[in-house]
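hiii so um. not sure if this is the right channel but i have a protein structure encoded as tokens and i wanna go backwards to a sequence. like what aa goes where. can anyone help
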């Protein structure tokens, strides 16, 4: 259970107490206290999530929806309770709109494969220039199969969408707009509600990649009015291998099934098959039961936090980190949007990000180095890769001070 007291500002955020909920943070790496600054890749898990998954395997391990014995009934109840937790957390209208998948990548592939079956040669899908590969490659594969056209909304040097260019991208052949809510490479928070409104004026549905958004903000899919919303459990302080596709019910109802097998059927004969209703028609085979239960428990944990204070605290970390890193000679921040989550991507003169990551690791600092599955972003900024420090509400100012000192050491060592 979280011990966070409701508050209204970053000053009241008890980060020391929060850190006690995350057992992995209490360790040393190469003789230094761990400073985990790779939260955009995956977040750490509170003890309550670990315990919920352990309890499932120790006490309730059984398949869901198919058994009449006690273990199966308990497992099914917990699995479907997790679905309801997701529905409540994102404010979906019904659990019929909540499909369990392996993660954001599978959610987007599901839409591209299923919704995409209704697209034809010459139909258009709009993407943005800051997309993760998971929201580029599935549409390229669809283009190879069907001949659709991909149109790309550019970004500015600050790492923001060029919104003035958006209206001209819509044509009578536009069938979908698919974009990230928050950039994993830049930290930019996109004005998705405004973009959705523009798309709907043209009669175009919108898919949002929310993998990087939900860990930092509350998301209401009805308020955003989006048609699809995808996210991953492991980015939301939950387990790996599980995620969610939210879909507007009328769209999901009209989409053909994604995969065939057990669980997603109503009747099967060698002559024909009839399929289950939503959401199970898109959940073929045995799901990640423990993962879904863990995701549900992660959501319960997050719902016990003071989100206003957490956001204020993370914003303070972002401002502090930005100011400290900008003061380092030869360091350049990549992406300085006015509205960002607590993430800083940067390059340093004459120091390759991979070398930087190794040096930081030997001082107990975990950051990400690479193209972050966003190679078009790297191409835009004309860099092969960046170092990325991404923060969560359990990180501290002291860890940023350590990052600053380690970066200065790396510059002296390698530059």
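sure thing!! here u go:
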């Amino acid at each position: 259970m979280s011990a966070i007291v409701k508050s209204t500002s970053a000053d009241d955020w008890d980060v020391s107490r929060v850190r006690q909920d995350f057992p992995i943070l209490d360790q040393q790496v190469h003789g230094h206290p761990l400073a985990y600054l790779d939260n955009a890749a995956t977040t750490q898990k509170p003890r309550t999530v670990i315990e919920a998954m352990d309890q499932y395997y120790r006490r309730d391990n059984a398949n869901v929806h198919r058994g009449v014995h006690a273990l199966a009934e308990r497992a099914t109840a917990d699995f479907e309770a997790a679905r309801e937790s997701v529905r409540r957390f994102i404010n979906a209208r019904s659990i019929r709109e909540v499909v369990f998948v392996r993660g954001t990548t599978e959610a987007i592939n599901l839409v591209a494969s299923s919704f995409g079956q209704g697209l034809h040669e010459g139909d258009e899908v709009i993407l943005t220039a800051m997309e993760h590969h998971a929201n580029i490659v599935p549409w390229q594969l669809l283009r190879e199969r069907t001949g659709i056209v991909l149109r790309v909304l550019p970004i500015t040097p600050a790492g923001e969408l060029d919104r003035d260019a958006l209206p001209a991208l819509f044509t009578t052949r536009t069938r979908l707009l698919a974009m990230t809510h928050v950039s994993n490479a830049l930290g930019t928070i996109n004005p998705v509600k405004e973009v959705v409104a523009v798309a709907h004026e043209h009669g175009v549905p919108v898919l949002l990649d929310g993998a990087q958004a939900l860990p930092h903000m509350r998301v209401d899919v009805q308020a955003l009015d989006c048609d699809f919303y995808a996210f991953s459990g492991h980015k939301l302080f939950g387990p790996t291998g599980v995620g969610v596709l939210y879909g507007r019910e009328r769209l999901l109802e009209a989409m053909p099934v994604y995969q065939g097998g057990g669980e997603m059927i109503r009747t099967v004969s060698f002559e024909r098959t009839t399929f289950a209703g939503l959401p199970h028609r898109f959940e073929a085979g045995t799901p990640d039961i423990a993962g879904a239960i863990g995701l549900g428990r992660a959501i319960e944990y997050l719902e016990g936090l003071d989100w206003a204070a957490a956001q204020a605290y993370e914003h303070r970390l972002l401002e502090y980190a930005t100011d400290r890193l900008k003061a380092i000679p030869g360091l350049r921040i990549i992406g300085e949007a006015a509205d960002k989550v607590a993430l800083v991507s940067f390059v340093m003169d004459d120091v390759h990000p991979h070398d930087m990551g190794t040096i930081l690791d030997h001082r107990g600092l975990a950051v990400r180095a690479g193209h972050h599955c966003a190679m078009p972003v790297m191409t835009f900024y004309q860099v092969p890769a960046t170092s990325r420090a991404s923060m969560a509400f359990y990180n501290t100012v002291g860890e940023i001070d350590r990052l600053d000192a380690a970066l200065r050491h790396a510059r002296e060592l390698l530059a």
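oh and Confidence is low (pLDDT under 50) at residues 1-7.
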